[in-house]
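Thread title: Can someone regenerate the structure for this chain?

I was given the following input by a collaborator and told the matching structure tokens would be attached. They weren't. Posting the sequence so someone can regenerate them.
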Amino acid sequence: MYFLKFMTVMSIVYVWCVDFKIINSSRGGFLLMINGFTFNKQCAKGKMWICTSKGTSRCDAKVRMEDPSTVIPYNIQHNHPPPKYHVTKDGKYIKL
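Best answer:
Regenerated them for you:
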């Protein structure tokens, strides 16, 4: 899914496009995948998603999901390469 976002700040229009999808994790949960990087939902009722490498790499990348079709990037700069996954026949993503 592609999302095109427009924002106007001091008469300057900023446009960004985020390619994202919700994937099934091998543990039965869901992850948000953007350009190969994965994000966990910060809390059950929250809208913020943080990089799955926050604990191991201290990555500060995070996004906000307003609704199922709207993702707002807060910081999508990562300090590590994207994780590698194997996709099973039933569509689950297993981190390698």
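The beta strands are 2-9, 12-25, 30-34, 37-41, 48-51, 62-67, 70-75, 85-87, 92-95.
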